[in-house]
Amino acid sequence: MKVIIPVAGVGTRLRPHTYSTPKPLLYVAGKPVLNHVLEPIVELAPEEIIFVVGYLGDQIKDYVESNFSFKARFVYQKELLGLGFAVDLALREIDGGPVMVVLGDTIVKCDLNKFVDSSDNVLGLMPVDDPKRFGIAEIRDSRVVSLVEKPENPESNLAVIGLYYFKDSHTLKDSLGRHIATGKTTRGEIQLTDALELMIKDGVAFAPFEVDQWLDCGKKETLLETNRRLLPETGNSPQIAGSLVVPPVYIDPDAKITNSVIGPYVSIAKGTKIENSIIKSSIVGESTSIESTVLDNSLIGNMVTIRGDKKSLNISGSSEVDFT
Predict the structure, then answer these.
(1) Which domains does the chain have, with CATH numbers?
(2) What is the pTM of this model?
């Protein structure tokens, strides 16, 4: 099996952080988003993982090659024409066999071995409270019979969450090619969902698979919420002399904490120094310095300097904030 991971988006909703760091490399619950995505995939021992990269793609390539040893290939997407276009680019050098597609900026919790252990194509789904906001799968007799984008009168509450398994990539490649040849776009993009709907109309069977968790990392609010939800299982909550640590937190062993209160729901990356401060419900990036500050509900990037006062912040990219 091969795996396709599209990571070419520019992450506009997470600016200013994504001006200098691609969204999949932003820090959450003790490690980059991409690590949360890749680690369960690596356990499947795929033949190859293909990354579709674009904006700041060299950073993703360097990170993967420095931190993982699996066979990886990087396909560059010059135009952001949608998920369907990205997957089509990756498929051009795949000659048959099963393939899994998983988005590189959302974290899915489920049994991936069970997900790919099927004689059918499989769609990852998650019940949602407001199905009118999502692409929804309509199910009949344990099969996906239709995919509807933001339906006015949804027949189910199962959202398509960006996790797909295709038992034969030839079928997917053919359907995507036919769809692209029509010139049809949805909201200005070539959508993978449209190609899947074409496959369903051709009689291709898709089995529904409900995942345990679907965690969005697309904007500040959802990234912080994902941090809150993951820390109880990924945190380390160390005891630090002279400081109070309120679990759950993740504090990198290379971070230095002095006379501070950290937590709950705080992630602190390597090389960061925090002194005389109180921080809760926040993510702090690498090599950042925070002194005499109270932070809550904040997303702080790499190489930032903050001194003084109580604020809620969303800053990145070698910034310096001084309230003294």
Answers:
(1) 2-216 (3.90.550.10), 235-322 (2.160.10.10)
(2) 0.89
